[in-house]
Design a protein that fits this description.
The complex is a heterotrimer of chains A (247), B (318) and C (289).
Chain A lengths: L12 H14 L4 H22 L4 H35 L3 H5 L5 H30 L3 H28 L3 H13 L7 H5 L2 H11 L12 H25 L4
Helix pairs in contact in A: 1-5, 2-3, 2-5, 3-5, 3-6, 3-7, 3-9, 5-6, 5-10, 6-7, 6-9, 6-10, 9-10
Chain B lengths: L8 H4 L6 E10 L2 E11 L2 E6 L6 H9 L6 E6 L14 E4 L11 H11 L5 H11 L15 H13 L5 E5 L7 H16 L3 E5 L3 H7 L2 E6 L2 E7 H7 L5 E7 L2 H9 L4 E7 L2 E6 L2 H14 L4 E6 L4 H10 L1
Parallel strand pairs in B: 3-7, 3-8, 5-6, 6-7
Antiparallel strand pairs in B: 1-2, 1-4, 8-9, 10-12, 10-13, 11-12
Helix pairs in contact in B: 3-4, 3-5, 4-5
Chain C lengths: L19 H17 L9 H23 L14 H27 L1 H6 L5 H20 L1 H12 L7 H30 L5 H25 L11 H13 L14 H25 L5
Helix pairs in contact in C: 1-3, 1-5, 2-3, 2-6, 3-5, 3-7, 3-8, 5-7, 5-10, 6-7, 7-8, 7-9, 7-10, 9-10
Classes of the chains: A mainly alpha (247), B alpha/beta (318), C mainly alpha (289).
Chain lengths: 247, 318, 289
């Protein structure tokens, strides 16, 4: 065996993040997951096709986008991809192979987040844009795409953190989606502020003149808060990787 | 029994120690997994021994920085592995768990490990170490299809691809056939001879004996002993040494032995005698004249509890 | 006392063997315990306790109101027929927690191979799992309604007369059993695919929420025919619940136009079909450990 060559103290982000990204993204492309995502996305397009044939097509399309694409497609798809990204590695005790490297922990968190977002954007944003385009109302495409991107950005951070931090991360994400976003956030404005969905539907509503339930956030907040949520969540994920014992 | 030496790391740590564990404890709630353990590891092969649940895996995890000690310090190459990620460049770990990445081939897995270690020519190095552990780097099968022994070898490959100075192997021989075990043991020796500290946690004591004689024995979370296991045996003066003697006159010789003050027990089994003696040195000098007096011929005088397994049993049975 | 040596080493069991029914019973009981988190650490009881609590909560609140506000009329209290709507989320979550926990873990831990090496075969294994989860589901589908009905009767807001009372209880048991059977079948079928229980849980919730929203959008916004609702299990179960209780309410929705018989048949059909699909799935699962 050859003599050890001296190496840099830690591996640079330019080398480690792509390496992590390739390993992590590959693990998300299972047949079952692609099938589930495809079904969810396909339903979005199907509903848009139906909406486009109605007399009040624009209003129907807005409801489809708000009550299905934003309320279900984005969070469910993100939950299926983001929570298991690091959560499965923890559960299977494989995280050690990625953690025990001369790499600052935030590289792994950033790469995991990037893998989630890259896996989701084509599966979520494109069908939503297509749904908006099928109705013939070009003005909907931009707001719908923006809402979808912000939704992927925010939910990915939250669910990535839950999966990394808690054994029951996926279940916690499910409870947040079902109980908080679909039930409790309707009770008060204060509770709605803690619902990512309310910011996304606000973005969608600003691009139309149709009133949408829960769309009561300030415009600037609707853009800033989802991004801020993602940044904080990824930071906390890195902190988790730094401080938690690894199996 | 000699009193336990007062531990002062500045005095007892060898200058060439790559790993230093100083009064380390680890508890999980009310469960104390490791309790006040101190030892150092120099280049070469060191066996980390202990019964199930002794704290070996917890100790290995702390040596890598995977777990933070509840008290005490772990140093690898002078730095704490938990708070200095750069130390990971000099640590290689083959963990005990069998789980593998379900969507990667062996080459993809080892190459990714090399890339994340910052190894130049990661692909070439991955191929080289896979060849070293007798795996085909061009095998397109995914890791879950591999046998247990093949997975063990893949884990070992990813642990050494970046040529670390400290290599930690948790049950590395599990699942390997006898020929593969011999090959791996030879590889461990080679790594140790290169100046690396190879720490092997294993239950396969007859193989561990082939690694060499340097052991660290942990029992119930505590350090039971460390050093050359033969020297450890010699220190156990509260346990008589047991020997087997073959003679043409076993009964006559046994009768003579019974009368010796340093002999605490004699058993006759056919034409062999098992003798327990409290002082092996005196016994060794006395057995020949005693045999001559008893007009008995000696065919064999063989120590029965001088091996690692016996030492291990004595240490963990306390 | 006579002198005897008892430790004779390993000996084959010579006693009576209870056979397959006992094996099915044992596995069903074990599945029930696992679904409720019994004989396990406290954290495994959180979701079952919370969801069962949610299922009883409206009933407890209504009974309290009826007991302490005597002037309140029966029309102001939650009707048993409406109860499904109040606890639907709790039912979905309980299904999503219980079913994956008893199926996916057997495949990932290798226990399925051990079960199939016993007197159980693939069919009896599925039957045992169904019985276990179905029994536990009755805690959230039947028990709250029976409690509500009994409590209403005690505070004077329930049915008058013994026959009416017994009939109402029987209807509650029937309605709850149909819903429990359908949810159990759906939960087991979906859980028979993924190996991770978390993925199965999300898939079950998705299988509940997506059809409801899609059917609602199509029938209420797109004026799709009412029969589209047949393809939404939660809608069918809720409506069948109302019909079986005998308190069907016309809310002006498309689903209210569907006949009670067809709704009940479809709801029962869901139970049969999903159980059958689970059986079919398990005939083809490769047991590799």
């Amino acid at each position: 065996m050859t003599t050890t060559q001296p190496r840099a103290a830690t591996v640079s982000a330019r080398e480690s993040i792509p390496a992590y990204f390739r390993v992590l993204l590959r693990g998300q492309l299972s047949r079952g997951r692609l099938f589930g995502l495809g079904v969810l996305a396909g339903i979005s397009v199907l509903l848009a096709v139906v909406a486009s044939r109605l007399d009040d097509a624009q209003e129907a399309t807005v409801f489809v986008l708000a009550d299905y694409s934003i309320a279900l497609l984005i969070p469910l798809a993100t939950l299926m991809v983001a929570a298991p990204m690091l959560g499965n590695l923890v559960e299977d005790r494989l995280l050690v192979y990625l953690w025990l490297k001369p790499v600052p922990r935030w590289h792994l968190a950033a790469a995991a987040y990037a893998a989630v977002v890259c896996a989701l954007l084509p599966v979520v944003v494109l069908p939503i844009m297509l749904s908006a385009a099928l109705t013939g109302f070009g003005s909907l495409i931009g707001p719908a795409a923006l809402a979808a991107v912000l939704g992927v950005v925010a939910y990915s951070g939250v669910y990535l953190l839950l999966g990394a931090r808690f054994t029951w991360g996926l279940w916690l994400g499910l409870l947040y989606l079902v109980l908080w976003e679909n039930v409790l956030s309707r009770f008060s404005n204060g509770m709605a502020r803690l619902s990512i969905r309310s910011y996304l539907v606000t973005v969608l509503e600003r691009g139309t003149d149709i009133s949408i339930d829960l769309a009561e956030r300030a415009t600037w907040a609707s853009f800033l808060i989802p991004v801020a949520i993602a940044v904080v969540a990824v930071g906390l994920t890195a902190h988790t990787l730094r401080t938690t014992d690894i199996e | 029994m000699q009193p336990a030496p007062t531990y002062e790391p500045a005095q007892l740590v060898p200058a060439d120690a790559l790993v230093v564990v100083d009064r380390v404890s680890k508890w999980f709630g009310d469960l104390v997994a490791v309790s006040d353990v101190s030892f150092s590891v120099s280049p070469g092969v060191t066996a980390l021994l202990g019964p199930n649940g002794a704290g070996k895996s917890t100790m290995l995890r702390m040596l890598c920085g995977l777990a933070l000690p509840s008290s005490g310090t772990v140093s690898v190459l002078g730095k704490r592995p938990r708070t200095n990620p750069e130390v990971a460049a000099e640590i290689g770990l083959a963990p005990q768990q069998e789980s593998v990445f379900g969507y990667l081939t062996a080459l993809q897995f080892v190459r990714a490990s090399a890339e994340l270690q910052g190894v130049a020519n990661a692909d070439a190095e991955a191929r080289r170490v896979l060849g070293l552990v007798e795996l085909d780097p061009d095998d397109t099968r995914r890791l879950p299809t591999y046998s247990k022994g093949m997975r063990q070898r893949v884990k070992l490959a990813q642990a050494i691809v970046h040529q670390p100075r400290v290599i930690l192997l948790d049950e590395p021989l599990s699942g390997l056939d006898p020929r593969q075990r011999l090959h791996m043991v030879a590889l461990f020796h080679e790594l140790g001879d290169q100046g690396r500290a190879v720490i092997v946690s294993s239950h396969v004591l007859e193989e561990v004996e082939r690694f060499g004689s340097n052991v660290v024995v942990i029992s119930q979370g505590r350090l039971a002993a460390q050093g050359d296991f033969r020297e450890i045996r010699a220190l156990m003066d509260n346990r008589p040494r047991r020997l087997r003697i073959m003679s043409d006159q076993p009964r006559r010789l046994a009768a003579a032995l019974v009368g010796q003050p340093n002999v605490s027990g004699v058993r006759i089994q056919g034409d062999t005698i098992e003798v327990d003696t409290s002082d092996i040195a005196i016994f060794a000098r006395a057995i020949a004249p005693l045999s001559k007096q008893a007009e008995a011929r000696l065919f064999e005088v063989h120590p029965l509890d001088d091996d690692l397994e016996s030492v291990f049993k004595y240490l963990v049975a306390r | 006392m006579s002198t005897q040596i008892h430790d004779l080493g390993y000996r084959a069991y010579q006693g009576e063997r209870a056979g397959v029914p006992w094996a099915v019973r044992s596995l069903a009981v074990h599945s029930m315990r696992r679904a409720l988190g019994l004989k396990r650490a406290g954290k495994h009881k959180i979701v079952p306790v919370l969801t069962i609590g949610f299922a009883f909560l409206p009933a407890i609140v209504m009974v309290g109101i009826a007991a302490f506000i005597p002037t309140i009329g029966a029309l102001d209290l939650i009707a048993v027929g409406d109860y499904f709507g109040y606890i639907a989320f709790a039912l979905f979550l309980f299904t999503a927690a219980a079913a994956p926990g008893v199926l996916t873990t057997d495949r990932t831990t290798g226990m399925l191979a051990l079960y199939l090496a016993s007197p159980l075969n693939r069919t009896t294994y599925v039957v045992a799992k169904f019985i276990g989860i179905f029994t536990v589901m009755l805690l959230v589908t039947v028990a709250p309604m029976v409690f509500l009905q009994i409590a209403y009767t005690l505070v004077g807001a329930g049915p008058g007369g013994v026959i009416d009372f017994v009939t109402s209880i029987a209807r509650a048991v029937l309605a709850g059993s149909v819903v429990a059977a359908a949810l159990t079948g759906l939960g087991l079928f979906i859980s028979s695919f993924p190996k991770r229980w978390g993925v199965a849980s999300v898939s079950i919730v998705a299988a509940m929420l997506v059809p409801v929203i899609v059917a609602g959008l199509l029938t209420e916004e797109a004026d799709a025919p009412a029969w589209v609702s047949y393809f939404s299990p939660p809608d069918m179960l809720g409506k069948a619940w109302e019909h079986l209780i005998g308190e069907s309410v016309d809310r002006g929705l498309a689903i209210d136009d569907l006949g009670s018989t067809s709704v009940i048949v479809v709801a029962v059909g869901y139970a049969v079909v999903f159980l059958g699909l689970t059986w079919w799935r398990y005939q083809h699962i490769e047991v590799d450990r």
